[in-house]
Each structure stands twice: as C-alpha cells, then as structure tokens.
Write a structure and sequence with these properties.
Blueprint lengths: L1 E5 L2 E4 L4 E8 L6 E8 L6 E6 L5 E3 L7 E6 L4 E6 L8 E9 L14 E2 L3 E6 L1
Parallel strand pairs: 2-11
Antiparallel strand pairs: 1-3, 3-8, 4-5, 4-9, 5-6, 7-8, 9-10, 9-11
Length: 124
C-alpha cells in the first residue's frame, strides 16, 4: 500500500483546510487510517483515526474542529480542519494499518504504511 498525502498549505487562524490521503494497492476498505502530525522540535503525535468500521477517534485538542472521513470507492481518507490555530502548525502524515484494533490506534509504531507528509502552517 502506498499513501499520498496532499492539501496542506498556509492559512490564517480561524481558517479551514482539507487534507487528503489517497491509497494505491491493497483493499482500502480493510484498512484503518490515521492522521499524525509533527511540529518543529516535537515528537509526532496522533490527531485522528477512522477504522475500517467507520468509527472515528480524535485527539482531545482537535475534537469539534477536525473531522476525519473516508471514501472507500476513491481509496481516499480526508481530514477536514476548521477553526485552525497556530498550534496546529505541523507536518501532517497519514498512516494505514489493515484491520487495526482500537487499542492500537493511537501509537504510530502500530501503523504499517505512511504517506510523505504535507505541511500545514497557521498564521496568527
């Protein structure tokens, strides 16, 4: 499975962006998809995930602002980000693992496939 992330950019605080993660290879509907982010000088952290069941999970600071979704027919996962804040500035990565279980969602080491990352910069 290869993942291609896109949609990053520069946006003012309060603005919105939609990230996309398109997969090639594999049976997309069997995979859990997640977004992680890494800010300068910080470790990569979990942002959101959607399992093959369609259930979604979010890091606390993005709840109510970010929405993760998937379109299995297009083999694409999305991260709709609204009310963006300067602290959301980071490189965003998408990741995938087949049939990932709930307890494994939040740890990056549990994912088998990664996209190349897309930069999101939020200006104040």
């Amino acid at each position: 499975v290869q993942l291609q992330a896109s949609g990053g950019g520069l946006v003012q605080a309060g603005g919105s962006l939609r990230l996309s993660c398109t997969a090639s290879g594999g049976t997309f509907s069997n995979y859990g998809l997640a977004w992680f982010r890494q800010a300068p000088g910080k470790e990569r952290e979990f942002v959101a995930a959607i399992r093959h069941t369609g259930h979604t999970y979010y890091e606390e600071s993005v709840k109510g602002r970010f929405t993760i979704s998937r379109d299995n027919a297009k083999k694409t996962a999305y991260l709709q980000m609204s009310n963006l804040k300067p602290e959301d500035t980071a490189v965003y990565y998408c990741a995938a693992k087949r049939w990932i279980i709930l307890s494994a969602l939040y740890q990056e080491t549990n994912y088998d496939y990664w996209g190349q990352g897309t930069q999101v910069t939020v200006s104040s």
